[in-house]
Fold this sequence. Notes:
Elements: H1 2-80
Amino acid sequence: MDSQNASYNAGVTKGQTQEKCSNMMDRASNTAQSAQDSMHETGQQMKAKAEGAADAVKNAAGQQMMASAQGAAEAVKNATGMNKN
Length: 85
């Protein structure tokens, strides 16, 4: 009987160890998936902010170019006498 008890206990211990290992693997997998999801979300937020910054730079540059063009047009008008006040 002792041999059967030892064999039974070894089987129980093996089953418990396998279950614990499986649980740890599941937790590790869930943690990795969570980290991946978080990184993806962070990447999307960074992309949106970069696009917003690029648009702001384009808008500012466009405004500067428009002001320069208007200034140049005024200078031409003044130089040619077309700008009569």
